[in-house]
Design brief:
Length: 193
Amino acid sequence: MPRPQLDQVRASGRIITNYNWNISIIRPPLIPFWAPGAVLLNLRCVTATEPAYSSAAALEFTIRNQTIAQPGVVKCSRAFEITVVETDNLDMRKLFVPWIQATYDPVTGVATPMEAVVGDIMLTRMNKQDIPIWEYIIFGAFPILFNDGAGAAFAGGAAAGGANFITCSVNFAYTYFNQGLPGTASQPIPVML
């Protein structure tokens, strides 16, 4: 069979980009700082890493000196990152920094109860026509690091003839996630502790 030509590959489907994301905070944390400014997140997200399973995905156990992978029981990587564009009113900083600071009081050494600081996030990959093609429901998510990207410019900025946007990255930790076609990943699964 001959190798496909480039135009045949292009005709088989549209190439997925890394910047078409829809992010929704579907269950906000219970802590009191929460602001409705979270809707701005969708407009400003330029990249996102997908939640994933760790490289040692299947849990293993040993029976009679044989190591066997347990199907259906996997470890999540427990972290993902989004990159957002910041503006001079610092909406992204106002959204994420108080959320991070609310998780722990360094003066007293007291951590906020987990149920008050975690939320559920839906991360949806969109095609070029902004139609959802795959979604991740991330349960028990909370931000652990806000990097304001001092001086970091959006790669498609000045070099592409546009403005230099300052981008900020936000790293999240989470408990587990479901994934699937849009509308199919929303059912939570029991957490095995």
